[in-house]
């Protein structure tokens, strides 16, 4: 059953029960109040008739003989002043002998059996015409005479009025339920409108449209639900985009890897086939074998770099407390000979700081970044810079070159595997586009990040930001 129908039926049932019980209690309370007044009136009427009978008997009849004639005379005398509302009365003897009966009802002596002198009894009787109150009392006449006085009061109108009230209330309840049903349907439709919109948004997202969002129209629970749904949709869209990007990177990786293998393998196969099938001079044989050797070494270097990338991604680093100034000086000592041969100089200005690193891997990162700077300068005379200082974000290494620079649209992709800005120059220099990917992974495992700023024709600046560790371990 839909939630809107649950709201509808529960509201209607609760209203029906509350108003039915409340209406019944109210009508019954009004009826009981009126009925109690009728009973009190009947008792007062019976008492008044008793007093009138005794007063007239004692002053006029003055006889102990309870004959029919004396009772009739007394009853006629005491009711003469009641012409407009002549009471229905019955006089009877203890032996159930009726002396006078103007009630028009069947005698019922059950009420008389337990009466004593100056006592009154009352009971409700139902007959073919309706309802009546029978009130009885015992009259002491003279010294030994006993007489029963019964008065009958018709209260049929009281019960008819109650039935009329019940009928009116039933019709009123029917109208109320009709109005309430229509109101509940409209109210449920209005209240659940955000849920229906949310359901439509969910279906559209399930259909692949991850940009759909629910409208937040209120600050109640539905508004909170819509906001949570939008937050979930944002997270799903982001994760889906990340998965698409990862899949695209994986596809690009496989394509690039296949391309990197295809060219040298094709050349190697071609030269090997020439050596196998053709007559060649000794010099031509040497050139072919040399080319096969060089391409084989390049494939070997490529496989080793891929292996390094896999190892870096899966190994757990053992960090040690390292002196950054020592690290910079060590890098300078390693690169100075090769840079001097290329006509370049290296200027190292690194502040002394102690941070947690894996020194060998961090050397690999800095050496790779400086080597990329060397390649970017492409044999031009100039200076490479390695700077390091403590900043708000942590300890930051700066690697700066005066090379060709990198186009702005390429900066976001240079850390992807096999990606090379200038593919022909990179291959000539022995590159495969994996160096920065390895660097990125090493820095990520240190909890840091790489940032690149470059201007075409002026050079590139790389920021290597590392978190600052404690000082509780041995200084390298």
Give a short summary of the structure.
This protein is 55% helix and 18% strand.
Characterization of the model:
The protein is an alpha+beta fold. The chain is built from ten helices and twelve strands. Strands 2-1-5-4-3 form a five-stranded antiparallel β-sheet, with helices on one face. A five-stranded mixed β-sheet has the order 7-9-10-12-11. A hairpin with a 3-residue loop joins strand 4 (131-141) and strand 5.
* SSE-based structural type: alpha+beta
Rounded to the nearest angstrom, the distance between the terminal CA atoms is 72 Å
Beta-strand proportion? 15-25%
Let me know the number of strands.
12
What Rg do the Cα atoms give?
A: 56 Å
- The mean pLDDT is 80
- Biggest sheet strand order reads 2-1-5-4-3
Tally of alpha and pi helices = 10
User: What's the story with the biggest beta sheet?
Assistant: 5 strands, antiparallel
Low-confidence stretches: 423-432, 470-476
* Shape annotation: rod-shaped
Portion of residues within helices: 55-70%
Secondary-structure element series: HHEEEEEHHHHEHEEHEEHHEE
List keywords for this structure.
55% helix; rod-shaped; five-stranded mixed sheet; 476 residues; 10 helices; alpha+beta; five-stranded antiparallel sheet
Describe the secondary-structure layout.
Layout: H1 3-61, H2 68-78, E1 88-92, E2 98-101, E3 120-126, E4 131-141, E5 145-154, H3 156-191, H4 193-206, H5 221-277, H6 282-314, E6 320-323, H7 324-341, E7 344-350, E8 354-357, H8 359-377, E9 382-391, E10 394-400, H9 423-428, H10 435-445, E11 449-455, E12 459-466
Parallel strand pairs: 7-9
Antiparallel strand pairs: 1-2, 1-5, 3-4, 4-5, 6-8, 9-10, 10-12, 11-12
């Amino acid at each position: 059953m839909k939630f809107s129908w649950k709201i509808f039926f529960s509201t209607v049932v609760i209203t029906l029960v509350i108003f039915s019980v409340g209406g019944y209690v109210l009508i019954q309370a009004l009826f009981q109040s009126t009925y109690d007044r009728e009973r009190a009136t009947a008792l007062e009427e019976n008492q008044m008739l008793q007093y009138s009978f005794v007063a007239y008997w004692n002053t006029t009849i003055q006889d102990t003989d309870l004959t029919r004639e004396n009772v009739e005379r007394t009853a006629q005398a005491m009711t003469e002043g009641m012409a407009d509302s002549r009471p229905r009365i019955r006089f009877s003897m203890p032996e159930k002998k009726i002396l006078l009966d103007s009630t028009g009802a069947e005698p019922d002596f059950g009420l008389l059996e337990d009466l004593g002198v100056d006592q009154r009894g009352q009971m409700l009787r139902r007959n073919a015409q309706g309802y009546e109150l029978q009130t009885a009392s015992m009259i002491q006449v003279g010294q030994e005479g006993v007489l029963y006085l019964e008065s009958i009061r018709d209260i049929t109108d009281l019960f008819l009025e109650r039935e009329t009230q019940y009928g009116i209330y039933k019709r009123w309840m029917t109208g109320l339920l009709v109005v309430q049903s229509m109101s509940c349907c409209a109210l449920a439709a209005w209240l659940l409108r955000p849920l229906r919109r949310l359901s439509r948004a969910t279906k559209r997202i399930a259909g692949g449209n991850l940009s759909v969002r629910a409208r937040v129209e209120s600050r109640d629970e539905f508004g909170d639900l819509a906001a949570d749904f939008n937050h979930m949709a944002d997270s799903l869209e982001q994760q889906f985009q990340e998965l698409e990007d990862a899949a695209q990177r994986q596809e690009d990786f496989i394509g690039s890897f296949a391309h990197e293998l295809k060219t040298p393998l094709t050349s190697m196969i071609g030269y090997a086939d020439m050596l196998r099938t053709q007559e060649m001079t000794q010099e031509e044989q040497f050139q072919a074998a040399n080319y096969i050797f060089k391409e084989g070494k390049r494939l070997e270097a490529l496989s080793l770099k891929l292996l390094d990338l896999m190892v870096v991604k899966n190994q757990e680093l053992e960090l040690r407390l390292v002196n950054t100034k020592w690290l910079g000086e060590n890098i300078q000592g390693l690169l100075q000979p090769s840079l001097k041969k290329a006509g370049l100089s290296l200027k190292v200005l690194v502040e002394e700081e102690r941070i947690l690193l894996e020194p060998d891997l961090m050397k690999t990162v800095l050496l790779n970044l400086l080597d990329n700077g060397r390649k970017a300068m492409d044999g031009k005379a100039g200076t490479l810079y390695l700077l390091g200082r403590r900043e708000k974000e942590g300890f930051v290494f700066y690697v700066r070159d005066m090379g060709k620079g990198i186009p702005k649209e390429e900066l976001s992709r240079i850390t992807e595997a096999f990606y090379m800005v200038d593919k022909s120059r990179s291959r000539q220099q022995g590159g495969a586009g994996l160096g920065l990917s390895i660097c990125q992974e090493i820095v990520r495992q240190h909890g840091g990040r790489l940032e690149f700023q470059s201007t075409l024709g002026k050079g590139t600046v790389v920021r290597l930001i590392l978190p600052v560790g404690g000082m509780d371990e041995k200084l390298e």
